[in-house]
Amino acid sequence: LKVGIAGIGELEAQLKKKVQSLQLENNIQFLGLIQHDAVLKLMNDSKIFLHTSQYEGNSTVLMEALYCGCYVFSTQGLAYRAVENLTILENKPDFVAAIKQKLVTENLQHKPILFNAMPITAKIIMSLYLPQVEENVT
Question: Phi and psi (nearest 5°) for 103?
Fold first, then answer.
């Protein structure tokens, strides 16, 4: 198992200490701040994307991970409907159990998921301003 943690945050020092205490330095790499295109490359090379943010003002990262073919585990959803390959969880034990099950029981294959195409998004936005457009939104 290889893990990359992109970005920086308040808990970085604690996480690094935890990784050292568990002797997981060969499995978990702290990548720091990296360019967006490098993040997308990592996602394309990954099978699982774990997103535990308690607040996400813009869910673009989830859509990017899904489109890169990752199985996404997150505290945040994208819609009021189920989204293929997106699992919403609330606590650490649920994350651990769900990811373990996914890794052990399934042959993880990259399958890009397009959450929303731009033409549909444009029609939805237009329907907010022009009610007659709403009937054509699919």
Answer: -70, -35
Q: Residue 91 is encoded by which pair of tokens?
A: 């606590």
Question: What 3 state SS string does the chain have?
Answer: CCEEEEECCCCHHHHHHHHHHCCCCCCEEEEECCCHHHHHHHHHCCCEEEECCCCCCCCHHHHHHHHCCCEEEECCCCCCCCCCCEEECCCHHHHHHHHHHHHHHCCCCCCCCCCCCHHHHHHHHHHHHCHHHHHHCC
pTM above 0.85? no
Summarize pLDDT for 69-108 with one digit per residue, the tens. Answer: 999 999 988 887 889 999 999 999 999 999 999 999 888 8
The owner of tokens 């996480």 is 15
